Amino acid sequence: MKEFIEYLTLRIEEGKKDIQALEADGRHDDADFAKVRMNIYDVCRTVTGALKDRPGAGTLAVKAQFDRFRSLWGSALEKAKEHGDTRNVVVEETKLEALEDVIAHFPEAEK
Amino acid sequence: MTQEEALRIFKALSDMSRLRIVRALTEGDMYTELLAERLELTASTVSFHMKKLEEAGIVSQHKEQYYTVYSLNREVLGDTLLGAAASEPEGEDGQHKREDAYRRKVIDTFFEYGKLRSIPVQRKKKLICYEVIAEHFVPGRVYSEKELDEIILPIHEDYCTIRRDMISEGILSRNGNEYVRIR
Lengths: 111, 183
Prior knowledge:
The complex is a heterodimer of chains A (111) and B (183). Chain A is mainly alpha-helical. Chain A has four helices and no strands.
């Protein structure tokens, strides 16, 4: 679990650099989407930190929370597509993409 | 070209990704997936940028089989600098446009896909939201309280507060169990 949190921290740090580079390049909207991606790693790190050692919660609760995110954001993506809301389509896709990466790196024994 | 149109064009172009898209389109018409590959962006990100360019009138789209193909509106880009410099101040019409833009912004903030996210605290914003809800009622037609609530409930769960507020703001009138939209 320590390695997993380190991975999330690394992605957050990389995200900060991506945002700076995109802003410097004048790609402001793409920088906003990079912020969304970085926030997802941050949210997942917070959730993991808060639940992993809590009595009655633990790693299963962390995974369950990730699954809830997947379901919520999947619905939000469908809704955005249904309404032709191009900005939110990108936002929800970005969130889901980051979440899938987080889940892929979740310790195998805990999945 | 009006100042507002010029401003919309400049805003759309004040992003390097969109400038790169415009530059790619100077070589010829392209479809979303090709632009995504060339610019190393996802197809949905390209679609997002294309919508902004399209709203500013910089590009237009047409369908070719399964693909959405985008073309550059060269005359719009050619006119922009001169048009912006020569455009007249907007006067009263500009005031209306600013009010419309404010209204649009409030609606976009408080409504999501037709549902009211929350009831605004500020009265001016609240009135705008209630006017949007009032559009669901036919002016002059008499509604029972049940009918009224059934229309408001899918928009926001606190239909009682909204119903009461719409009466006190003079949007609806109440006579016993009957309600009429009066403005």
